[in-house]
Amino acid sequence: MTGGRRLTVDPQTCRTEDLRPAVAWLAAGGIVAFPTDTFYGLAVNVRDAVAVRRVFDLKGRSARAALPLVAGSLAQVTAATGALSAREARLARAFWPGPLSIVRDAPGWMPVEVHGGHRTVAIRVPDHPVARALADAFGGVIAATSANRSGEPAAPRVEDLGALADDPRVFVIDGGATSGGAPSTLVDVRGTQPICLRDGAIAWSRVVESLYP
């Protein structure tokens, strides 16, 4: 792999075929920086344990930290992680596509490197056409950890990626500025009571209202 690879796309007209170079990079075990509905993220093939370790090394992220996922559609979510529960389905109808991540049991096919041994993964369908098109073009769920070194600010624009954009392991999709602001809200509704694991772009009060209309 060589550095300096970049693809500029218009989010309003981006098609899956436009992203073939990035998909080839993912398939080869590389890392792709791409825009989401919150910040730029880093994608890898979640079935490739070596690629997953590569993105943890790039970020300086603890191997015990789980790697979040994004999907191009609800169908991709269920294909990768199984049918939704009644509560999860309510959240999906209310907030997907959008910045709400749902914690689910990790499927058996998923490398332990993805969930860090916790046996759970957070997944969402983002409200950004490039993010969804990338997952669709790749043919399945992809990683969506924030495109920054751990402990540093998230990147709302390509210009904010800094040294990550020049790393030889990274292919950059420049889709313009993202909305920035707060990260996705992280929720767990597997137990008796819903739990907010991270406050984010969707207010917790809205989540609760969607579950108990």
CATH arch. level architecture: Alpha-Beta Complex
Question: What structural class do helix, strand and pairing data support?
Answer: alpha/beta
List unreliable stretches of 5+ residues.
none
Q: What is the first-to-last residue Cα distance?
A: 51 Å
Silhouette? globular
Strand numbers in spatial order across the main sheet: 7-4-6-5-10-11
> What is the helix tally?
7
Taking all Cα atoms into account, the compactness measure Rg is 16 Å
The run of helices and strands is EHEEHEHHEHEHEEEEEH
Percent of residues in helices comes to 25-40%
> CATH topology, which one?
DHBP synthase
Largest sheet: 6 strands, mixed
Q: Got a strand count?
A: 11
CATH class: Alpha Beta
Tell me, rounded to a whole number, the average pLDDT: 94
CATH superfamily: DHBP synthase
Number of structural domains: 1
Fraction in beta strands: 15-25%
Describe this structure as you would to a colleague.
The protein has 213 residues and is of the alpha/beta class. It has one domain: Alpha-Beta Complex (DHBP synthase). 28% of the residues lie in helices and 20% in strands. It is built from seven helices and eleven strands. The strands form two sheets. It has a six-stranded mixed beta sheet with strand order 7-4-6-5-10-11, with helices on both faces. Strand 2 and strand 3 form a beta hairpin. The protein is globular, with a radius of gyration of 16 Å. It starts with a strand and ends with a helix. The model has no long low-confidence stretch (mean pLDDT 94).
